[in-house]
Write a structure and sequence with these properties.
- It comes from Paraflavisolibacter caeni.
- This is RagB/SusD family nutrient uptake outer membrane protein.
- InterPro entries: SusD-like_N (IPR033985), SusD_RagB_dom (IPR012944), TPR-like_helical_dom_sf (IPR011990).
- It holds the Pfam family SusD_RagB.
- By secondary structure, the protein is mainly α.
- It is 33% helix and 7% strand.
- The protein is built from 21 helices and 11 strands.
- The chain has a 3-stranded antiparallel sheet with strand order 4-11-10, covered by helices on one side.
- β6 and β7 form a beta hairpin.
- The longest helix is centred in the N-terminal third of the chain and has 26 residues.
- The protein is globular.
- The termini are far apart.
Length: 645
């Protein structure tokens, strides 16, 4: 039986434990200064220890939801997924220093690392926040045996959760900086402690080892009351993800790709913190095996690729009920139908391996912080908020439903008709809102358009505002995690930290790089395409399959916080993100029809969103100046900073 969603006590942080952690010094090791609340107090009983476990989850398990304050946007804005218009949206995107980043002006004091983020709490400091998270996991590991009233089984389970959380926090830092210090204990506050950056190999091997340890300690399934806690399958999933990244060109660089990333290398022994010294094809085999291990272990955990008993690749037009959802949109909404196809609106989609159950309306947040939630999209707030425009260059990655590519028509007279007749991959229509479409009963039509030039129609309600809007009349917005059904009820959303489709694609990608596309790589690629309602592919060469699998991964996992990682590890970010982006801009018109229609025609034209720049040194985020100045990250004659910074 599948689990109903339940947000347990575990995921509402204990204020006692959080308060205990505020008396910490500012260096990355977070050495304690002491205080009235002690470790012994927290780890005396199981009830008290739960607070520490809860706080550990809040710091270590990532969420892609916009959860904190008004100056809070999505990581998508750093990629070609989303374009926020400037200068109006500068304050919205301040958490990522977006206004500097997209023009090639990131600096160590204005970098994209926001630190770990959770509901009801502002972002942690760049870089150092990940070590706050690591410290919380290490404190649990060190002290959980002291809980007096817990069973051995409960203690073993918590140890597995803490080892996983430590691995996840290290991974989160690694994906930004490359090799980072490895911290496996709660360090004392006596004297100067200095732990330099570790090599890529050491970080990857450590994370893999921790994942194996965690998998051995964790259960394969959880009861509904524990929905959101990690399982052994989640540990295998993190292992598979880090090994896929490690096998990819950013870290495992083939000789014919070294020149394109030379600007992000030292050219000497220091490069061990940036990449492996030599390319090794076997790393792809190791990644393939790890992804296949996730796939093979999934049934025992009750996890499967979600397809209705009667496959439903498309969402029913003009509906905002659970019953109308296509299978792909149902996955994103974390809902499923019973196998008889008659029961709708249940939670706990079986494709999810691990979710962050902080939903978008956390009761701890203040009214002002509710603004952060509305920066998920313009249509969610209706008249306010930030417009999450999707560039045409990204839209064109969605194939037509027949599997062919398309190129945007520069202008026309009826955008809604045009966009529907493109007959795109059903995933596009289940992830995007576009001008003129019927969105739901609350919003009716997506009113993204500018006012008619002859005054016959006023501007649409969600075209712009005075703060962070989009006066261009951009016609397409990301709404993958915007409540559309069930009266715009946000409570059914969870953040998919891992879902099974990722590992179908990871397995196909890695196995193709190791042995070519024939057989299972093509099989697993097409299983994902079949669920989406797309025709099968049969690329004949490794290069052709690489192009197909990268595109498939891009659209299947769109807006789920994969695009930044993927563009980097493929060494494609400096080309994809250094170009001029465009959007569809729409203007209301009656187009000569009399009497004028209730809903206007939407005449469109392609407009420029401006030219972005991605310097090669961006492949690794710069460490903050205050950490570099402490001289613990590097070694003799090197301060530990990444190249070019």
């Amino acid at each position: 039986m599948m689990k109903r969603i339940y947000i347990p006590l575990l995921l509402f942080a204990g204020m006692v434990w959080a308060g205990m952690m505020t008396g910490c010094s500012k260096d990355f090791l977070e050495k304690p200064k002491g205080g009235a609340v002690t470790v012994d107090t927290i780890f005396h009983t199981q009830m008290q220890a739960q607070y520490a476990v809860a706080d550990m989850y809040k710091w270590c398990v990532p969420s892609g939801f916009v959860l904190t304050e008004s100056a809070d946007c999505r990581e998508d804005a750093l990629t070609d997924n989303v374009h926020l218009t400037l200068p109006g949206a500068a304050w919205v995107a301040a958490n990522y220093n977006y206004q500097y980043y997209i023009f090639g002006n990131m600096t160590p004091s204005a970098a994209i690392d926001r630190g770990p983020t959770s509901a009801s709490r502002a972002d942690a400091p760049p870089f150092t926040g990940w070590y706050k998270a690591i410290r919380k996991a290490n404190l649990v590991l060190k002290n959980i045996d002291n809980v007096s009233d817990a069973t051995p089984g409960w203690i073993t389970d918590v140890k597995g959760q803490a080892i996983f959380c430590r691995a996840m926090a290290h991974y989160s830092a690694f994906r930004l900086y490359g090799g980072v210090p490895i911290v496996t204990s709660v360090l004392s506050g006596d004297g100067q402690i200095s732990i330099p950056r570790a090599s890529v190999q050491s970080v990857v091997d450590s994370i893999v080892s921790w994942c194996d340890q965690a998998a051995a300690l964790l259960p394969t399934t959880r009861a509904g009351v524990d929905y959101g806690k990690v399982t052994s399958l989640a540990a295998l999933a993190l292992k598979a993800r880090i090994l896929l990244y490690a096998a990819s060109p950013l870290y495992n660089t083939p000789s014919d790709m070294k020149s394109m990333v030379a600007g992000a290398r030292f050219g000497d022994a220091r490069d061990s913190v940036l990449c492996y010294p030599t390319y090794d094809k076997q790393r792809w085999k190791r990644a393939a095996d790890a992804a296949k291990a996730v796939i093979d272990a999934a049934p025992a955990s009750g996890v499967k690729l979600w397809v209705s008993s009667t496959p439903k690749p498309a969402t029913n037009a003009n509906t905002d009920t659970y019953a109308g959802l296509g299978d792909y949109e149902a996955v994103c909404n974390n809902v499923y139908t019973s196998e008889d196809g008659k029961t709708f609106g249940l939670y706990g989609n079986p494709e999810m391996i691990l979710v962050n159950t902080f939903n978008q309306k956390d009761p701890d947040r203040s009214q002002w912080n509710q603004w952060g939630f509305y920066n998920t999209s313009k249509i969610r707030m209706n008249g306010w908020g930030a417009k999450n425009n999707v560039p045409v260059e990204f839209l064109q990655l969605y194939e037509k439903k027949n599997g062919t590519k398309w190129t945007a028509t520069p202008s026309g007279l009826d955008f809604k008709d045009y966009f529907l007749k493109l007959d795109l991959d059903p995933r596009a229509y289940q992830s995007l809102a576009f001008a003129g479409q019927w969105f739901n009963n609350s919003r009716t039509f997506a009113a993204y358009y500018k006012a008619a030039t002859d005054g016959s129609y006023s501007k649409g309600a969600i075209v712009d505002d005075t703060n962070a809007g989009d006066a261009t009349g951009s016609a397409v917005e990301s709404v993958k995690f915007v409540a559309r059904v069930d009266n715009m009820n946000d409570n059914h959303f969870v953040w998919p930290v891992f879902r099974l489709a990722e590992f179908y694609l990871s397995y196909a990608e890695a196995l193709n790089e190791y042995s070519g596309p024939a057989g299972e790589p093509t099989t697993y690629l097409n299983l994902i395409r079949a669920r989406a309602g797309m025709p099968a592919k049969s690329p004949a060469s490794t290069d052709a399959f690489r192009e197909d699998i990268q595109n498939e991964r891009t659209v299947e996992l769109a807006f789920e916080m994969h695009r930044y990682n993927d563009l980097h590890r493929w060494l494609k970010a400096h080309t994809v993100l250094s170009q001029t982006f465009h959007g569809f801009a729409v203007t209301a018109s009656k187009n000569g029809v009399n009497p004028k229609p209730t809903n206007p025609f939407l005449n469109w034209e392609l407009i420029s969103y401006g030219t972005r720049s991605f310097p090669v040194k961006y492949y690794y985020v710069p460490f903050p100046y205050n950490q570099i100045s402490m001289n613990y990250l590097g070694g003799k004659d090197w301060d530990g900073q990444n190249p070019g910074w």
